[in-house]
Specification:
Length: 125
């Protein structure tokens, strides 16, 4: 069962590394989509990319997983509140916003589950 958890943890982390890299590879795309109320514009995009990559590495290498998955869940909640929910009110983009909202909600749940499993395993030791 431990092997399944390890594989699941790594598979969960890989997309976040790719999402983070995308913040650098497609920076101009992200800058073009930043809303005016997100502070520091391009710097926020770069910092978000760094945070996503760091969270992914933490989860893959099984270091500081509880902290990184809780912070990752908070970051995903910020995405939901600042990007996806406002996007639901755009008549041209609401379908995409809904898909992204559901994806990030699911990933946030997975992140909290991993944090909970780490907490429970630490409590049991």
């Amino acid at each position: 069962m431990k092997n399944l958890s390890t594989i699941g943890r790594i598979l969960f982390a890989i997309p976040f590394a790719i999402f983070g890299l995308n913040h650098f590879l497609f920076l101009s795309f992200y800058i073009g989509n930043v809303t005016s109320f997100i502070p520091l514009g391009p710097y926020t995009i770069i910092l978000t990319g760094i945070f996503l990559i760091m969270a992914s590495l933490s989860i893959v290498f099984n270091k500081y997983v509880k902290v990184s998955t809780i912070l990752l869940a908070i970051l995903l909640l910020i995405f939901i509140l600042t990007i996806h929910i406002p996007g639901l009110f755009d008549p041209d983009k609401w379908q995409f916003a809904l898909i992204e909202l559901l994806k990030d909600t699911s990933l946030m749940g997975g992140s909290l589950m991993i944090a909970g499993m780490v907490f429970e395993s630490e409590k049991g030791n």
